[in-house]
């Protein structure tokens, strides 16, 4: 295997491209790249079978950490801490970053819904960190897939990867630009829409597949979703100054409520947190 290519200057074109992607995420999405930063994130991207195209390592920052081996044939680059900190997305970088071919799941790629199928539909979640946290919850609740709806959603942004603990690489996450396309898909697959709406009540008992639909924190779901919903669901809250939860917290409550009775917690997955 060839020796890693040393990159010593922050003005290197490869470095400048990664830095540019921080302020121009659409450019990265257009290039079809997912960035996994951190040992855990890179390991899980490899476990999910993603194709790695570039492997950045900073021995100074990695120290004595055990890191996965770079896949055979992948371009390997090394850089000093000052350069790696320029390309890193996180405040305290570990010293490992992988450029991967981003998954391109489509609605038609999803298998038919099982009778106990569970889906998360995250509408207008444009903050990648929030979307990542919701995908993490969806994976823990046993969801079959996540539909990220909106023209600017970015499920493979480094913040989404980190906050999902790289679950975005293992759970099918489909970016859907228009709500009508998502609604049509759910209708065609026989998946009931349970939309989180102001004034919503308990989720009705259902024997078929369900999609829990969560809107953006600032304005909630649009009338399009309210009109399409099979049920309006909500979270009862104690009287007081708090009248709502953030989208990630609401998704956790509603998904685990929907998951009850659909599957039981294996002992090895039980968590006190």
Automatic annotation (TrEMBL):
GO terms for biological process: methylation; RNA processing. It is an enzyme of class 2 (transferase). One of its GO terms (molecular function) is RNA binding. Pfam families: MRM3-like_sub_bind, SpoU_methylase. It comes from the Bacteria. Residues 118-256 form the tRNA/rRNA methyltransferase SpoU type domain. Its EC number is 2.1.1.-. Residues 12-98 form the MRM3-like substrate binding domain. Keywords: Methyltransferase, Transferase. Belongs to the class IV-like SAM-binding methyltransferase superfamily. RNA methyltransferase TrmH family. This is Putative RNA methyltransferase.
